[in-house]
Each structure stands twice: as C-alpha cells, then as structure tokens.
Amino acid sequence: MSDQQDEAIAINLPPSLKASRRGAIAHLRLARPDKRNALDDITVEGLFTFFTQLPAAVRVVVLTGDGAHFSAGLDLSEIANTSPLLDSILHSRMWHRAFEAIQYGPVPVITVLHGAVVGGGLELAASTHIRIAERSTYYGLPEGQRGIFLGGGGSVRITRLIGVACVQDMMLTGRTLDAEEGKIARISQYLVDDGQGFAKAVALAEKVIANSQTINFSVLHALPRIAESDPASGLLAESLMAAIAENSPEARQRLKDFLEKRSAKVLPQG
Ligand code: 1HE
C-alpha cells in the first residue's frame, strides 16, 4: 500500500463518514469525533450507501473511528422523544439493512477498534469480518442501563460471537470488557498496541487481496450461512461450494502452482 497514493471514492457520503482508496484497499472512517462517533440516522444510511456502491476496484475495506473512541453507539438524542411504535421498528430495521449490507456485502471488512466500542458501535463492529482491537479498547452494552434494547442486530450477531450469557451479563449489570477480555471472549481476532491497528489492518488486507475472489466470496456469503443451517443442509451446501471453488480457473492455477513448487508453504508465523 505504501507506494500508492490515496484517491477519493466517488460516493456521496454524509460529513460523518470519510472514505478514501489506496489501490484495492478502501479506508472508511467514522468521522464524528466531537460526538464520539455516535451513530445517527444519516451515518447509518451513509454506511448502507457506501457498502452498496463500492467501486469494483475495491477488494477490502478497513473501517476505523476518528478521535479517542471507535463509537459511542446509537445517537441517543435521536430516540430521546417518544415516537410511534412502528417508527421505532422501522428505525431498527434501517440499521439491520445497513449492517446486513456490510456482513453480506461485496468485500471483507476489517475493523480497527480503540476506546469505547459501545452499544450500536459494537453491533457495527460485529457485522464486519475481522476485528483488530488496540489496547485502549473496551466494550459495553449500556442499553440495559438506558432502558432500551439492542436494535442494530446485536441480539443475533453479538450473541453468536460471545454467547448469550456474556451479553446478558453486560446488559444486566453494565459490565464492560477490556481489550484482553474481548479477545478472550472472541470479539476481536487480534489485539495490538495503541496506534498499531491501522498498520495491522493493512497487512491483513493485503493477505485478503491475495486470495481468489471466489474464495473471499464463499467465506463471506456461504460459510456463515452454512454454519447456521441444519447439519444435513450445511454439509450439502459445503459440497456444492467446494465443487464450485475447486473447479474455478483460479483454483486450478493455484493448485498447479503449489504442486510445481511455485507457491508458499504453510509455515508458522513469528
Ligand atoms: C453522544 C453519545 C451518544 C456521546 N449519543 N450523543 N451509548 C451510550 O450509552 C454511550 C454514551 N456515551 C458515553 O458513555 C461517553 O460519551 C463515552 C464514554 C463514549 C465518551 O466519553 P467522553 O467523556 O469522551 O465524551 P462525552 O463528554 O461523554 O461526550 C462528548 C459529546 O458526545 C457530548 O456531547 P456535547 O454536545 O455535550 O459535547 C455527548 O453528549 C455526545 N455523545 N455519546 C448522543 N451515544 C440500534 S440500537 C443501539 C443502542 C445503543 O447503542 S445504546 C448505547 C448508547
């Protein structure tokens, strides 16, 4: 990534989101640090716009938050006044639509976490594929204390990541997890020192880009659905996906390269 220039991405985004591209890596920033990257409607809609309008040249997205915190979650000022029940349902469904566009979007998303990763901020992070936590990171679900419930898919995605019991503890007691606890709980796959998250994300992004697009697609779209289906259907879907993948021209070439000793061996990483 180092010898390439940042380019603008021609997608119309709200001021709370900033996007740029360097080669095949897009960098999307939550850019509302004065409100601790609280997610208001315009930002959530902007996330949907971004992930549904990505240029084809983008093969991976790195998501970060400006300022001292990744995200303080839902912008509470937007729900402070009562609204008709249906509006609240549609509001939550709007979040679902945006985060679905991330989880089942066109490319893998690597998120760099730091500071508060709270409520809807954690729901956003949970809809991405790889999470790198810097040591300053802490996780909270203060919905319980605010008298509200999860609404951005956390009941499904966060419980699948860390289990119902852990989410219940966080919501009932207001417990926060620090970065190490979050790694043990499997919120983040990586834990790095403060300030190191972006470089780590770029290094991982380059590995992701080196894969075949068929494989990245299957890991994003087939794998989680197979994991959630009944075992018999899952096994059949796995066989179908395996056949599609291994008969792709990319796989043929990669297998030949390995057998003719042109590609790297699998060695432990230091
Ligand atoms: C906000 C929000 C917000 C900050 N909505 N405005 N989320 C929460 O319950 C977390 C609430 N926020 C906090 O606990 C703290 O702000 C932080 C620990 C994240 C950061 O503390 P700090 O001292 O750095 O900042 P601050 O002084 O608290 O906040 C700076 C400004 O951001 C301030 O506004 P200002 O006009 O007085 O400068 C805050 O009001 C504002 N701010 N967080 C609105 N969340 C789809 S359902 C999801 C449900 C949820 O996400 S519930 C979790 C909500």
Main structural class: alpha/beta
Would you count the extended β strands for me? 10
Ligands (ions, cofactors included): 3-methylmercaptopropionate-CoA (MMPA-CoA)
How many DSSP helices? 11
How much of the polypeptide forms β-strand, as a percent range?
A: 15-25%
| Strand order in space, largest sheet | 1-2-3-4-5-7-10
Instruction: Please give the alpha-carbon distance between the first and last residues.
Output: 22 Å
Low-confidence runs of at least 5 consecutive residues: none
Query: What general form does the structure show?
Result: globular
What's the order of the H and E elements? EEEHEHEEHEEHHHEHEHHHH
Largest pleated sheet: 7 strands, mixed
Average pLDDT level: 96
Determine Rg (CA atoms, Å). 19 Å
Helix content range: 40-55%
Describe this structure as you would to a colleague.
- By secondary structure, the protein is an alpha/beta fold.
- 46% of the residues lie in helices and 15% in strands.
- It is built from 11 helices and 10 strands.
- It has helices at residues 41-52, 85-103, 120-126, 143-146, 154-162, 164-173, 179-184, 197-210, 213-228, 231-246, 249-259, and strands at 7-8, 17-22, 25-30, 60-65, 109-113, 116-118, 130-134, 138-140, 177-178, 190-192.
- The chain has a 7-stranded mixed beta sheet with strand order 1-2-3-4-5-7-10, with helices on both faces. A 3-stranded mixed beta sheet has the order 6-8-9.
- Strand 1 (7-8) and strand 2 (17-22) form a beta hairpin.
- Helix 1 (41-52) packs parallel to helix 2 (85-103).
- It is globular, with a radius of gyration of 19 Å.
- The mean pLDDT is 96.
- Bound molecules: 3-methylmercaptopropionate-CoA (MMPA-CoA).
